[in-house]
Specification:
Length: 341
């Protein structure tokens, strides 16, 4: 299954940095799942030494561990079926008559031509990472050209505002394009870098410069900043389109992962029900009853499909939350401007 590289360290330097977001977004989903299951396993085993009723006594009373694991079978089958069905319903939206597909194709080609016209490219790349790379790089070039137009401007406040704005665009664009060079769609790197380019703020700042210094801007400078804003406006639909494709990709991965893990989980549940009772696995290991080790492992296997589901949905939900508003609107309080309100 395609997934992201786990060798990188938390990206604390970019605007999406932080340990929490790194766990929710960048950490490999299988590693994340394994870490959660390991914590659950340790907690279950640790409770056996806290003076609670011994597990073997409880199992002797019930006759076997079947009372404990039988409910997992129905839950795994039902849960897996529901998730796969929902995924198929979402993906079914891609199906349609030839006329609908042709219209989608025409709209996609029209969007590409708009991007090519704005950034001055003959043809835009077909790969999502390369397409975003060219678009962000084009925005960077337009910002640089805008600054060059303002070199002869005598309004010091305007020059300072433009210099600060271009510096922000340059730093953000260079960081994003560097990371996009080796990114491959199907991994999270493409969406991560699309999220890392805060185009909404850049639209607001550019419009603010144009509004506050309208009288000082020459006709050429006004055209240049308008073209820059147009390019930034194209980044929003591009990001949303690739985000939608990525969500569909992840739903497919989630469905496949649940199908992979459900059969082994059901098999383990069957073994626990059929062969493990109060007389099984006598003795201790490291001072802990062997029945505790095995039963805890069986519980972890039983909940593994649910944990896989959680880790995938956490990423999808986090991305969706951070991209609720497309365009010039900024929902995160950390990006509020000092003159708002």
């Amino acid at each position: 299954m395609n997934d992201e590289d786990t060798s990188g360290e938390p990206a604390s330097q970019d605007r999406l940095g932080g340990t929490r977001l790194w766990l929710l977004l960048r950490l490999n989903r299988w590693v994340f799942t394994g870490a959660i299951l390991a914590v659950v396993y340790v907690v279950l085993v640790a409770f056996s030494v806290l003076g609670v009723t011994p597990l073997r006594v409880i199992v002797d009373t019930q006759g076997s561990v079947g009372f404990f694991f039988s409910s997992f079978i129905g839950a795994i089958i039902t849960g897996t079926s529901i998730v796969v069905t929902i995924s198929q319903l979402v993906l079914s939206q891609e199906l349609g008559a030839v006329g609908d597909q042709r219209e989608r194709m025409q709209e996609s080609m029209a969007f590409q031509r708009d991007v090519e016209e704005i950034i001055g490219s003959a043809t835009s790349p077909p790969e999502p990472a390369a397409f975003l790379y060219e678009l962000v790089d084009g925005i960077h070039e337009l910002a640089t050209e805008f600054e060059a137009v303002m070199e002869d401007e005598r309004d010091d406040n305007l020059q300072a505002a433009v210099a600060n704005y271009v510096e922000d665009v340059t730093g953000n664009a260079e960081s994003v394009t560097t990371d996009l060079e080796d990114a491959q769609f199907g991994t999270f790197e493409v969406i991560w870098n699309a999220l890392n380019f805060n185009y909404s703020r850049k639209i607001y700042d550019a419009r603010k410069i144009r509004a506050n210094h309208e009288d000082s801007l020459s006709e050429e400078a006004t055209e240049q900043i308008d073209q820059l804003i147009d390019a930034l406006q194209l980044f929003g639909p591009a990001r949303e389109h690739f985000k939608t494709l990525y969500f569909q990709w992840e739903l497919i991965n989630l469905s496949r992962a649940l199908l992979y893990i459900s059969v082994p989980a059901l098999t383990v549940m069957g073994v626990m029900i059929m062969y493990v009772d109060g007389n099984a696995l006598l003795g201790t290991t490291f001072g802990i009853d062997n029945l505790v080790w095995v039963t805890s492992a069986g519980f972890v296997v039983g909940i593994s499909p649910f944990i896989v589901f959680i880790t995938y949905i956490l990423r999808i939900a986090t991305v969706a939350q951070r991209t609720l508003a497309m365009g010039p609107f900024i929902l995160r309080e950390s990006e509020r401007d000092e003159d708002l309100g």
